[in-house]
Amino acid sequence: MTAPELLVESPQRNRGTYREVELDLQVRKRERVAEGVVVLTLADPAGADLPEWTPGAHIDLMMTPTLIRQYSLCGDTSNSAEWKVGVLLDPASRGGSQFVHDKLHEGATVRVRGPRNHFPMVQAARYKFIAGGIGITPIYTMIAAAAATNADWQLLYGGRTRSSMAFLDVLEDHGDRVSVCPQDETGMLDLAAELSAPDEDTVVYCCGPEGLLSAVEQACTSWPTGSLHIERFAAKAFEPSVGGDSAFEVECQRSGVSVTVPPDKTIYEAVEEAGVDVLGSCMEGVCGTCECDVIEGEPDPRDSVLSEAERESGATIMICVSRSRSERLVLDL
Amino acid sequence: MRTNYPFNCWYIAAASEEIKTGLFTRRVLDQPVVMFRRGTGEVVAMEDRCLHRAYPLSKGRIEDDRIVCGYHGCTYDAGGRLVDVPSQGNVPPGARVRTYPIHEKSGFVWLWLGEPAAARLRPPPRIPWSAEEDGWGKSLEVSSVRANYLLLHEHYLDLTNVFHMYPEAAPPDIHTLPPLNEVEVSELSVSYSRQTVPTRPASWEMDVAGLAADTKLPRVEEGIFVSPALHVQRYIVGPDGEKPYVLLRVQGFTPESHGATHVFLQIQRNYAITDDSVTGYLRTMFHEMGKRDQDVLETVQQQLDQETRPHRDLNFKADRAAIRARRIAQQMVDDERFVLR
After folding, report:
1. Given CB 3.0 to 4.6 Å as the disulfide criterion, which of B46, B127, B208, B312 pairs with B99?
2. Which CATH code fits A21-116?
3. Is the peptide bond before A11 cis (omega within 30 degrees of 0)?
């Protein structure tokens, strides 16, 4: 998540069960790597090791209690002494990238939370990387990993102008694996051509502005399920429930029972009262005991068990705490 | 059966002291591995199988940093290259036994069986809180448990079993464990801590640390699931303002196969560092505890193996560190599987 301007807080943050690692790190180095882009090198002031991470991971920079932004790690995964993030100064900044550019000078200290990874890199024979602008940051680390393991890979890298594109010096060393496409020289990325031939041995990783992501999603519709991995700048927003929770229907398919779940009851309570045999334990969305499969509908996950990918897929639900975004949920109960 | 352990991870293959002058073999992640020390002291690891016939190289001998197979005398150098075939004048060019990255540090030999080039993408293994060199008193035991490695992680990540399995080891004033204060996570690790109200010491603590029976001491228990290969626990018993007594329980869990795990248990302490009787006491005590753990874990594994219909375990709040650890391991395994296959 390279988002300078992620407007919603990650839902994980509000879950009390697990606390994420938080560290006060020092800006060891600050380098301008392209027009409007700085790379910060962060390290523990006392030299302690930092938690391990894998390509695609991101951290939160907690600049003030209310100014918290996510940035992809773009350094070397084997270096446990320091982390690097690349930050674009967004002219429409709502504070995050402005703060980084104005205040986080060498020697400054910033609170950091994480890392976590919603964009993990799976092992594959071939990778097609597509990056737009500052979306290069997670891809940059993935390329280092692909290159180190001798995987076959290609990068299509778009940007406004050549001078605004970070890491070109290193990337261009990879020769014809890398296509650099500044918009003012070559126009828009030709995604239709790039993605015209679905290939079951290739996985596609894309990070960049929303327009690019939707276009890549469009172009990949004929690709096998699971080929495309994208990271959105602003993750799917949780609708703030202004008027509290609302009622919805739950159909328990195996039992042939349908119930209405009122705002003041959990799915677990409602189905149990209706005589459905359910298994639960902690009643806090912690232990995973009450997990069941979702056959139809869109769950509103509120547990602390599922991974981000699992939450997005909506395939299972912890019925002791989670609710529904759709008016009806069909469960395998 | 699909395995539930990741390959791209550093695992302990041996304690340094196990690899002496001869060939040493151990099955790791269901792969036969032979190890030996070169003249320079550096450890070499390779697949324990001659290229010619499926005879273990570990049954051969070492000659000048080379392994000579005990069957037909095929000879391999430390890089795994076949360098001599006694029955044939020429050596098949390019014939090579697979070798594995090794990292030896602080008494352990760590092995990488995953994608060889990916080893350098991961930081070298480290043991949190550990005195790297000889600063602390240490004892070590290597054993094997016929149970899946995740059962071991789970067992030690939820210590609420202590009062049932080891009532004699618990401090006399504590009868149930307070809930975990905090479970802290990052992408690949889980740590937890728990503090107890000041209590009198357990009898073993009086014996090894010389604590007086009537002192009431606060204690902190912390642990980290560092990776699928390692769980470290730290017990700190501290009279306020004085140097706390710290005991580390370092547990390397290395899958031998899906149903068996090598356990590398190291106990470190920051007190009575040079007192061999304390080292012996702790070794014996943790050995006895390990035996009881082993009985339970092997029974659970047998039960699982015999089940004819799938069961879903009931979990409790105390399991939350373990649940997270299982998910981290699962994610690592999933990332290694080519998703489209």
Report:
1. B46
2. 2.40.30.10
3. no
Looking at chain A, which residues constitute the CATH 2.40.30.10 domain(s)?
21-116
Looking at the domain that runs over B10-120, which CATH code has it been given? 2.102.10.10
List chain B residues with CB under 8 Å of A128.
none
d(CA B229, CA B8): 11
Q: Is the Cβ pair A123, B115 closer than 8 Å?
A: yes
Token pair listed for B292:
């009881």
CB A283 within 8 A of CB A268: yes
Instruction: Indicate yes or no: CB of A203 within 8 angstroms of CB of B337.
Output: no
When computed from its CA atoms, the radius of gyration of chain B, rounded to whole angstroms, is 22
**Tell me: domain A248-331, CATH 3.10.580.10, correct?**
no
Picking from A18, A122, A281, the nearest residue to B183 by CB comes out as A18
Q: How do the pLDDT tens digits run along chain A, 333 residues long? A: 333 332 333 333 333 467 889 999 999 999 999 999 999 999 999 999 999 999 999 999 999 888 888 899 999 999 999 999 999 998 877 788 999 999 999 999 999 998 988 898 998 889 999 999 999 999 999 999 999 888 999 999 999 999 999 999 999 999 999 999 999 999 999 998 999 999 988 999 999 998 999 999 999 999 988 899 998 765 443 444 456 789 999 999 989 999 999 999 999 999 999 998 888 887 888 777 888 999 999 999 988 778 777 888 899 999 999 999 999 999 999
pTM, full prediction:
0.87
Residues present in chain A in total: 333
3-state class of B164 per DSSP? Answer: helix
**What CATH number does the domain located at A126-231 have?**
3.40.50.80
User: What's the CA gap between B313 and A151, in Å, rounded?
Assistant: 39
Domain ranges of chain B: 10-120, 137-340
Provide the CATH topology of domain B137-340.
Naphthalene 1,2-dioxygenase Alpha Subunit; Chain A, domain 1 (3.90.380)
Yes or no, beta carbons of A287 and B324 under 8 Å apart: no
Residues of chain A with CATH 3.40.50.80: 126-231
Q: Tokens 């010619």 map to which residue?
A: B52
Kindly report the number of other CB atoms within 10 A of residue A147's CB atom: 14
